[in-house]
């Protein structure tokens, strides 16, 4: 019911809906449409699909308020709502018929008369391919790239998308699901070494076992329940009269420069320091702090305590 209301509300804004039928001569064919809409304009791409076939769609745009929905042409209920589910969809058709992929600006952007240039890719695939790709191993390893060559990590499942990182043979990746973009397999992955997520070409991935958990160094922090991406020791001093020593620390990374660091203290407690975009932004339990960057080290002062955290511990690598 909520999805139906969403689609109806979107339709009520429409002043100009352009409709373009797409024809696919064969299963696995992939088409890219580059277009622009302004304000409450919408673009409807119509495709004929057999029951159980998979409609694969991906969207990149110049305006972050650009989304697409997928629905049967005779239904107000969306099978996929981009505003809540993201820019990549693999939708299984519940029945044979015509389906609509509607690209639009979110209501607030439409009312302001904003515009967006976008590139939307659409393909039709058989269900057995989609089912096999959606599963797979828990972990991949990059293989076959070649010495001195890197594999691009992109922010979408196609070479149309921007490069957000570089990977090398042997890098360990957490599998978050694969799909076909045309005839090419693309996989959504989390890079274990620095926590970023993105898409890579599946031809350079081989099945791998779970990477070894960093060894416990004794008196280790417990963190938030998620396995640490790395553990190490950091230079620390918890009292003014105490000389700098070593405290065991663990880090959970969630993208370049974004990380949570847990430090085990000598009294059995632990301290968390949250980093965003390479900068300390908060501590737990919420103590006031100051920090400096000295060479390749963050020096974080929390009251009388001092912690020296290497940048490599935050960014990985």
TrEMBL record:
<dbReference type="InterPro" id="IPR003646">
    <property type="entry name" value="SH3-like_bac-type"/>
</dbReference>
<feature type="domain" description="SH3b">
    <location>
        <begin position="141"/>
        <end position="209"/>
    </location>
</feature>
<protein>
    <submittedName>
        <fullName>SH3 domain-containing protein</fullName>
    </submittedName>
</protein>
<dbReference type="Pfam" id="PF08239">
    <property type="entry name" value="SH3_3"/>
</dbReference>
């Amino acid at each position: 019911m909520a999805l139906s209301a969403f689609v109806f509300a979107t339709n009520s804004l429409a002043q100009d809906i352009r409709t373009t039928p797409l024809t696919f001569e064969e299963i696995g064919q992939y088409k890219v449409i580059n277009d622009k809409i302004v304000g409450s304009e919408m673009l409807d791409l119509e495709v004929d699909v057999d029951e159980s076939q998979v409609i694969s769609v991906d969207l990149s745009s110049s305006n972050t308020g650009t989304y697409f929905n997928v629905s049967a042409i005779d239904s107000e209920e969306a099978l996929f709502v981009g505003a809540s589910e993201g820019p990549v969809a693999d939708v299984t058709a519940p029945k044979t018929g015509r389906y609509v992929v509607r690209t639009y600006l979110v209501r607030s952007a439409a009312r302001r008369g904003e515009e967006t240039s976008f590139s939307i890719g659409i393909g039709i695939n058989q269900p057995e391919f989609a089912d096999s790709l959606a599963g797979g191993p828990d972990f991949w390893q990059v293989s076959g790239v070649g010495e001195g060559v890197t594999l691009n990590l992109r922010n979408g499942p196609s070479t149309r998308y921007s490069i957000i990182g570089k990977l090398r043979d042997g890098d360990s990746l957490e599998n978050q699901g694969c799909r076909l973009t045309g005839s090419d397999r693309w996989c959504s992955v989390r890079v274990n070494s620095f926590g970023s997520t993105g898409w890579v070409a599946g031809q350079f991935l081989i099945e791998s076992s779970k990477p070894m958990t960093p060894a416990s160094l004794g008196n280790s922090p417990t963190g938030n329940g998620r396995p640490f991406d790395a553990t190490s020791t950091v230079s620390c001093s918890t009292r003014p009269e105490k000389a700098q020593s070593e405290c065991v620390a663990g880090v959970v990374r969630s993208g370049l420069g974004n990380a949570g660091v847990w430090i085990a203290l000598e009294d059995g407690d632990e301290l968390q320091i949250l980093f965003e975009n390479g900068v300390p932004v908060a501590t737990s339990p919420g103590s006031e702090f100051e920090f400096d960057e000295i060479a390749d080290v963050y020096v974080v002062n929390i009251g009388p305590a001092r912690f020296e955290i290497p940048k490599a511990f935050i960014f990985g690598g």
